[in-house]
Amino acid sequence: MRHLIILFAILSTVPSVAQQSISLEECYRLVDRNYPLAQQTGLLEVQNQLESEAVATAQLPQIALDAYATYLSDVIEFPLAMSGIEPLNNDQYRATVSVNQLIYNGGATKASLDLKSVQLKAKQKEVEVGLYQLKKQINQLYFSVLLAQESKALLQAKEKQLRAKLKEVRSGIKYGVLLPASDKVLEAELLKLKQQFQETESNKRALVETLSSLIGKPLNRETVFESPLVKTDLQTDVNRPELELFELKKKEIETSENVLSKQNAPKLLGFATGGYGNPGLNMLDNSFQEFYTVGVKLNWKVFDWNANKRQREALAINRDIVETESETFKLNTSIELNRQQREIEKIESFIASDQEIIQLRKEVLESADSQLKNGVITASAYITELTHLYEDENTLIRHKIQLELAKANYKVIKG
């Protein structure tokens, strides 16, 4: 009893390993989260916050400290009638603290903050576009793994059929119905199958490792890849993140124009300066004094040689460039969707033909099977017909996977 308790305790510490599975949609989610480019979304937000805080400091008091000491080769001299006034020193000293407070700048600070906000959205959308473009690569890898997975299952079915037939042939040889070397042909075919298993497994391993690196999740050869049933609405309405990016770029240009319009607005500032020096504000008092000044200052750039106007004209041209890029993208996407739709229709017709061919191949193989049992044909002839059936079934599987890949790509192109 004690040994059973110990055995149960040991078994309870061994983690149960469930068979891992993954879907195409999960691969999409993982690449959006784990691909290195995805980290830029958070970094851009932090960067934008720091830049916005820097812009917002324009509304805070600006404090400056100045200090200097000078020696003058000549100073003001007073007439003899004012001889009671002590002459100025040639060495002079002054230290001041100045505070400037922006009162009004025509909304330039707010416009700059709005521009930073739009720029953040545009940069984050660029990251989203970059991640979205990885979906086609994921599709290619995922469906290639599916094809390897299905090919392996087909090889296993063929192996099972060959082993059953080998058993029958050996029985026929034993009773003199078939030629003695008939089983050697089947054994050779089984060895070929073993090579095909190894090749399929090697290809699948390479594909799985590449996909695992892309999505940032450990996968192994035991991972089951779920077969997606891609439902595709063959409409040409495009909903891609690139279109949103073009709109954000236009918004960024509009906001930049607003910033430019505020640049030449009058700026009103309040200022205060306090200091200590010799002489102070009273030049006739030749001693160290405290002093201060307060006031307001208006700064208005009335003429800038049309620099602001030229900048706005350049932005207008940039808007036209973005518009042409948007139209080009829409046209190319429409062409790609049409080509992908034709591809889907072509593969669907291939699948219909494949099914008819396979049915005919099965009938031929049944006849060959009967002839082999009766010694009418050799095992080589039977292998030939079995191989034809296997190749056609493999073609059907490949076309089915290609169809799902084409649908998935159509969905990605459409958005």
UniProtKB/TrEMBL annotation:
Assigned GO CC terms: cell outer membrane; efflux pump complex
Keyword terms, alphabetized: Cell outer membrane, Coiled coil, Membrane, Signal, Transmembrane, Transmembrane beta strand, Transport
One Pfam short name: OEP
Subcellular location: Cell outer membrane
Residues forming coiled coils: 148-210
S-adenosyl-L-methionine in keyword set: no
Signal peptide interval: 1-18
Main location: membrane
Gene Ontology molecular function, alphabetical: efflux transmembrane transporter activity; porin activity
Family assignment from sequence similarity: Belongs to the outer membrane factor (OMF) (TC 1.B.17) family.
Annotated protein name in UniProt: Outer membrane efflux protein
